[in-house]
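Sample entry (275 residues):
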Amino acid sequence: MKKFQISTLALVFLLTGAFAAQAATTVIPQSALTPSTQYYTDIIGGGIGNVVVMTGGGNANGAGSATGRNDDGYSGPISFSFTTPFSFFGTPYTQFWANNNGNISFTGGISAYVPTGPTGANVPIISPFFGDVDTRNAISGVMRLRTDIANEIIVTWDAVGYYDQHADLLNSFQLVVRGPDYAIPVGEGTIGFFYRTMQWEDTDTSTTAAIGFGDGAGNAEVLQGSNAAGMASVVNNHYIWFDVNLAPIQTPEPISLLLVGLGLVGLAGARRFTR
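Predicted structure, serialized as tokens:
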């Protein structure tokens, strides 16, 4: 089944190549990543939420199983339950699909496992780590969802394995999405990608992973190096926040903070001197 899907995707890309060639892609610099060994939920407490039960998908989608173990499954539609609809690439949404292969999407689920998105997905997509996740191995964790905080959802792929049922290497990453009425603290954003230990991107079907945002029509914003070898190492133990316009919110470098501090000290000294 997976071999058939690869050839089908290739055909779609050939048929839509002329249109896709006109699409725009913005690159997010890797320097926007901030070192950290924590999930967002490690900071706020309360855990990573409940196991996501799949409703459909592709190969071994595990639909209906309370364990959440699957390959190429998705769950949805899931309500945001935000006070105001969530706007993405200018379109308001009230629901989403949580996809086992490292992303969430709008208007429909994604069971694709070759990491062509965000630029290649045919529906709008938020992709913290689009790779061929496979949670069927008993050692692997599963996708979890937390919705108890008003105007915020948190999706976590916690210590998940990769296709075909491998769990010798595991990835742990988390997505935070906030509605327009969430009171965002200084230094945070509307969307957050959080990565703890990231050990794989090479699976039995692909050798890369895709990170970023896509509108489903070929327009995208991707992290520098997306869909190139080495992305697991790049994001390992890092996080990044994005504002409502999908621009990265960068944490000031320690040296910048030091210079600001020295400037304040100097200013205070000058005031004392001129008294």
